[in-house]
Structures are given as structure tokens and as C-alpha cells.
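Final report, closing paragraph on structural work. Over the funding period we assembled a curated collection of sequence-structure pairs, and we close with a single example.
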Amino acid sequence: MTAPRFAGFRRILLTGGSGFVGGYLCPLLADETPDARRVLLNRPGDDRSRTGWEPAFAEIFDEAAIAAIIEEVKPDLVLHLAAQSSVGAGHASAGETWRTNFGGSFALALACSRFTPEATVLFASSAEVYGLSFRQGKVDEDAPLRPQNPYARSKAAAEQMLGDILAPTNQLIVTRAFNHTGPGQDERFVLPSFAAQIARIEAGRQPPCLQVGNLDAERDFLDVRDVCRGYLALIEAARSLPARAVFNISSGRARSIHDLLQTMKAYSKAQFDVVVDPERLRGSDIPRAVGSSSRLQAAVAWRPAIDLRETLEALVDAARLRSEERDLLK
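Its predicted structure, as stored:
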């Protein structure tokens, strides 16, 4: 039998595991660490569970509660995914975004530095931190951080803070994943919104008119499963990485939202018009955002493996299934 890839990690804490990415990452990591203690941090009252994971409950920004959990679990691997992750919601509730994204990271860093100073901490940041640097072309990890919205600024600040507050003996791996999607992602995000609208139009619950924002924007999109593969590859290689390391997770290819919508439209069983909704436009939109993942590829031989057309078709199929399930519940 092949030895588990992450046998060196015996106690794992995952924050944000009940969210979109966690739905893909949790089973993968559970399979790879059968003998480890795996603890999933949930918000109080959040009863969503993941098979193979033991729940713990606390607000991520509650310093006392987080310290108590870290002291009891003493994780040697912390995967910090918890965040308010919508750029649009970040504008609408900047205080909550900063409290969750920065305050939660601060509480975690304090607790880890005190109770588990030898732990590896993987922080899921975001490509949004580059902001205006995208105007200079494809970005690598050395590009200046010039964030343009509360979500991005809170993530950029958390990156810097973690490097300062974690113990020098803590390993910090920062990942800056570019746009990633797949079934299960919230409809606040652009491609799931298209898929959900297509399903509603097909079911006759929405007029044949699909509402969109800026279709000219170009983004570097990945399937969520490829992003999870990147996380796992970095965890597996952690012992060979520097004490402080930053990695883009990107395809290296910019795709226009217009072209992605046309691909999804081809999967539709109904005809519809496309109408720009001014409410979906953001004044600070960057026209083109694409990243280099050459550092990640050199460190762990990672490359995206899933054709995005497969992802888009899966999004539409999943939206149809949810639509059918709603009909059955009526």
C-alpha cells in the first residue's frame, strides 16, 4: 500500500470548511490523513458537518474561544479558509468583512504563536490583493499589492499580520488563488449566477432574460478541484518549503466573461436575451486579471487539470438539479 501523503501531520484544524471550497477539500484531506485528528471550526449554530471531521464551534474573530480550541487541539497543521469572500458583500458590509478576514486571522495567529508554535499554517488569501497591479499585465508573487476593495484590503493586511504575529517557528504558506468555481458556489458569484438564471429560465420561473454585469472583464478562472489540488500539493511539500512562502494558484490564461457566458448559453435548453443590469456593475472593475503560477509549478509540479468547459457544464447541471429539487418540495 502507498503511504498516506500527509502522515507527518497528526492534528489538523480547518477553518471555513463548511463553505464552498471546504465541500471539496474536506473529503480529500480526510482520505489522505486517516489516522489524524481532524477538527472543523464552525460558527456557533452552524450544524453543517463533514464526514470524518470533528466539529468545534466559535466565531473566528473571538480571540478567547479560538485560543481555547487551539490550546486543546494543538494542531500541527492549520488550514485557514474562513472568510467573508464576496467582493460585493465586502463593499456592503466593510466592517464585518474586516472583522472576519483580518480579525479572525489575528485571533488565529495569536493562538497558534502561543500554543502551537511549530505548526504549519496555510492561509487562503486571494488574487484580489494585486488590484491595480493587474494593469501592468500578468502578475507573479513579487507584484506590488494594490488592493481596490475592502475584501482585498482585509486579505492583504491579514497576510502581512500573519507573518508578524505567528511565531518564527511557525511555517506560513500563503496562497493567492485566482477565480475558482464549481457546483455548490454561492449565486453571488458570476458563473453560478449565470447557471442559476439559466435553470430558472428553463423551468419557466424567470422571463427569458439573463441579467449580467460587465461582460468585457477578463479573468483567470479555475475549477475549484484544481485549487484544492494546489492546497494539497503544498501541504504535502510543506517540509521542503521556506518558513514564509507565497504562491499564486492560477491557470495563466485570461478568459472574458462574455465568452464563458456563451459557452454556458450553448448548454441551455431555452433561448434567452442577455441584459446588462447596472446594479451588477462595479466601478472599480479591473479590465483584465491573470496570474503566473510558475512558482507553484516549480515547487510542487502543479498544473490545472480540469477543462473549464467541463466545469461550466457541471454548473448548469447542478443548477438544474437544485431547481428540480425546489419543485419537488413545493
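The two ends are 49 Å apart (CA to CA). The chain has two domains: 11-181+222-249, 190-219+254-288+307-329. We thank the funder for supporting this effort.
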